[in-house]
């Protein structure tokens, strides 16, 4: 079992909280770098949320 699989298993049922954590971490990086890498950070946030299954909108279905 890979590390990502273990993380997904731990996050099961807490996807919203994980998504908020990813957003908060990205915002902190943007703040510390004064937005210099905002595009890269946003891309990383989106990909991480997709991998963790936290890329859901308010209504619940995954984003396309």
TrEMBL record:
InterPro entries: Antitoxin_Rv0909/MT0933. Residues 1-64 are annotated as: Disordered. It comes from the Bacteria. It comes from Streptomyces parvus. This is Antitoxin.
């Amino acid at each position: 079992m890979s590390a990502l699989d273990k993380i997904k298993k731990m996050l099961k049922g807490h996807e919203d909280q994980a998504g908020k954590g990813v957003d908060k971490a990205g915002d902190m990086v943007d703040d510390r770098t004064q937005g210099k890498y905002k595009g890269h950070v946003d891309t990383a946030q989106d990909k991480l949320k997709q991998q963790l299954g936290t890329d859901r909108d308010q209504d619940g279905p995954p984003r396309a």
